[in-house]
Amino acid sequence: MDKMDNPADVLLKAMYGLGLTVGSTIATVLFEKAVDYFGDRVGPKVAEIAKRSNLLDRVFRPGFYWGYYHLLRSEKTDWMFFRGISLKNEYLRAVRDSYIGSPTFKELMGSQADRRFSEYKRALPLIANVTHTDNIWFWPNWAFSSMLLFTHLKLYSPGANEWILDVRVPSKGIGIYNNLGRRFIKEYYLKRNKEKYEEIKQFYGGFLSKLSSRSTSGKGTPNSENEEYQLSIGLRNRPLRWVAGGVIPILYYRSKWWFAFPYRDIPPVGLNHFGGLSQDSEERKNPRLMALREFLEEFMVLSHPPEFGVEAIRKPIHISGEFHESIKVNRHFKRLQHFHKTLRETQDGIPILDTDDKDHSGIVELHAVDSPFTVRIDFGGEVKKIHDVFFSIDPYELGIEIDFIYWGRLEKNDYILFGEPDPTGSYLIRSPIVLISMDKILESIENDKLEQYDRNDCHECRSLPRLKEGDYYIFDRDSIELRSERMKHIIDNYLISEHPGDLDEIESLIDEILKTENFEKASNLANTLKDKWMEVKNRVTAQDSIVIQELDTHISIATSTWPKLLQLRKGVDITPESPWADFARLVPVAWKVLTMAVKSGSLCRFKYH
């Protein structure tokens, strides 16, 4: 090497070429050796920076993936991929069918295929080698790393009030990395095998029936060899995603026990858990880590209600058990926590201050609820058991959910915010947080009063019976006041219109909706706002197009939720027939987890508090 050459430049070029030709594993090893070698020359600090620079993930591995997925499209290269795997042909067919712009993609995406192809601007698959889906730098619109399971599930009960879900997760396979891929696999597998997924619904429904019958019959220990208490189902032609999950918290607030839910405004519409999907192989091995990370990203407690332009104090949350410190250093958790704090300050003018309360008086302590349920995971021969879980299977979303229930206490002035930004990290989602009386939920499940709701906006959901004032409490300032301020700030400071009067009219409609007490009138104004925005959206410009996307999102959510939220502020009853019934509707994961908790007796302690 010439003495005048920059060692870093030479290293970068060499490793990029190496990544393209011989793969990321060798590139990784040689990169680390090269850093050690050059470290003596450039100093330990520079070497440490190089190791932390994400150079491997940002450059070498993407270089390898480009070559990998270019070659994979050709059937002449089959011998190179998924070697030694029994499902090789199924994997190759699924990956090739999922390429953006492929005939199968166009068939399943219909009229949206061309638009999606133009958005991605490159031919990449939506289903990929699952080990590659961990890379957040390579994949367009990356949001998670979720594996498709083609193995089998087994549910069995080795003793009284004890249940185990047995899952075999192979070390190699295929997976998805964003929401378009999530939609694609629903079209690709579910719509082609509806009957097969109906069997999965019956499989899980059979388990809930057995759990319910055992809780009411008072029977003793079942015979573990009895077929009635062993359920098994294969996933060969009907894969499920591994893994999703989250937390449903129980909170003591203002002298009462509540369940807390984020409101979900896209299908399935209703009360959700605080959760999401795994983001790397470590989380696929440790569902509790994934669930708690998702929860702490989305669940933020302030010491007072938020005010636009006023600093706020975020109360630290301490999770009992072994995973608290692991979550704090998790790269995904740190990334999204940073997004949230930055967005609150730049978009709401609210600096988020973290307290360091050494006497623990300001800390929100959360403790796990015990359960008789265990998930046994065989991860490529490495067996791990996760205890005190609540699991659900959603055949309509092709998902296996591993959830947990934690309980804690809040102060009278504490305020909960939804902390998750949009997938790009560019703006806040601002979902309202809904508290439902624990007594009301326990009574509804114990007496089988949950009403079935199965429509396009919420398949396999359940509605709570009538809720009166005092049965619910909603943290909605972020969804109403802060959202409206942000909308008007975008209009006033970022948008340029050919007809300035259009933007003035939109601002006027925003103010009118918020001043209107009558539901029908507010709904009509909301529809007018939506129609007006659709009319002018293509006539406005901005230096950064993301603010137009953000305003579009806010208007869509505001017009569908504000008329309802404004009525709920008055304490009106919520019934399954009311226009705001979705604020008392449990999405599948929520009602299944709560049913397991109630029917197994896991929540008995709270009846006497």
Account of the 3D structure:
With 609 residues, this protein is α+β, with helices and mostly antiparallel strands. The protein is 42% helix and 22% strand. The strands form six sheets. Strands 1, 2, 5, 7, 8, 9, 10, 13, 15, 18, 19, 21 and 24 form a 13-stranded mixed β-sheet that branches.
What is this structure's SSE topology?
Elements: H1 7-22, H2 24-42, H3 44-52, H4 55-72, H5 88-97, H6 103-109, H7 113-120, E1 127-129, E2 146-149, E3 152-159, E4 162-169, E5 174-176, H8 179-190, H9 194-217, E6 230-234, E7 240-252, E8 257-264, E9 270-271, E10 274-277, H10 281-285, H11 287-298, E11 299-302, E12 312-314, E13 317-319, H12 324-328, H13 331-348, E14 352-354, E15 364-368, E16 373-379, E17 382-387, E18 390-394, E19 399-409, E20 415-418, E21 433-437, H14 438-446, E22 451-455, E23 458-463, E24 472-475, H15 478-493, E25 496-497, H16 500-515, H17 519-536, E26 540-541, H18 546-568, E27 585-586, H19 588-599
Parallel strand pairs: 4-16, 7-19, 12-14, 13-15
Antiparallel strand pairs: 1-5, 2-5, 2-7, 3-4, 3-6, 7-8, 7-10, 8-9, 8-21, 11-20, 15-19, 16-17, 18-19, 21-24, 22-23, 23-27, 25-26
Helix pairs in contact: 1-2, 1-4, 2-3, 2-4, 9-19, 11-13, 14-19, 15-16, 15-18, 16-17, 17-18
